[in-house]
Amino acid sequence: MLTKRNVLFAGLAVIALAFSVYVWYRDSKKFEPRADLRAFKTAGEFEKYYKNLEEAYKKDTYGGATPEETLQLFIDALKKGDVELAAKYFIPEKQKEEEENLNIGKNNDVLYLLISDLEKKKIGKKLSSNTFRFITVDDTNVVEFQFDLIFNKYTNIWKIENL
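Above: the chain's sequence. Below: its structure in token form.
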């Protein structure tokens, strides 16, 4: 039986649901760089960094439509010894640093170690709508390696956040 109380309750539930969807949609469109704010002396410096980084995300086309695809592209670049390309699969703010790290590995002839770790049995888990975590395990299912990818909402590709 429809009572005023039931109608009121249903109306409030619909309003709460609509508000939740609105907040989720609004927050999914925010650009939130991961930066240590202590690195900036002024608000202007941060604003400039923020704007440049947002532009870098908008122009970034290196990555796959899925976390697995991005990971495979990264591994393929490493197998070719193309550390410049491999570094482009990282989030824009880490590409330069990771290229340097990968070059050290290449110069010391140890990229094969990273490749072999990345090619081990993997377990993937979606942590949120824009974050995915892989772990690699050895033959006895002991976790050896963990790394995260994030979704670039501007170009709809997945990027490596950390290794």
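Strands lie at 121-128, 131-137, 143-152, 157-162.
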